[in-house]
Known about the structure:
153 residues, 8 strands, 5% helix
Amino acid sequence: xxxxxxxxxxxxxxxxxxxxxxxxxxxxxxxxxxxxxxxxxxxxxxxxxxxxxxxxxxxxxxxxxxxxxxxxxxxxxxxxxxxxxxxxxxxxxxxxxxxxxxxxxxxxxxxxxxxxxxxxxxxxxxxxxxxxxxxxxxxxxxxxxxxxxxxxx
Length: 153
């Protein structure tokens, strides 16, 4: 099994169709609710992963609940040739689990959009283990060189 660090193919199409809104002000289409779920090394997440799946997800317990945590978008911006967006860091406290990667997905239901549509998957580069501590996903700076989601020409 493998976890690829990619924007999903379906996300790119859905983005052009107007189904995802990263606009923090809630402009149309309103209601995009992004979440992050954690996965073990048994997960198979690639460019063709279209929706949130439970197969290979970190099991509930030990400070983690399946379906993951809600994300807070830090805004949308652009430079000369790159548009980008990012999220605030997210943490699981009193945690004891091992994760190999994650999926960011849109948990909202928008007409014409697959429910729980996958945005991207990220491989951590190896198993990351926490034992009775805090597990934090630290997102990069929200700029044209570092943001987690960047669209460039």
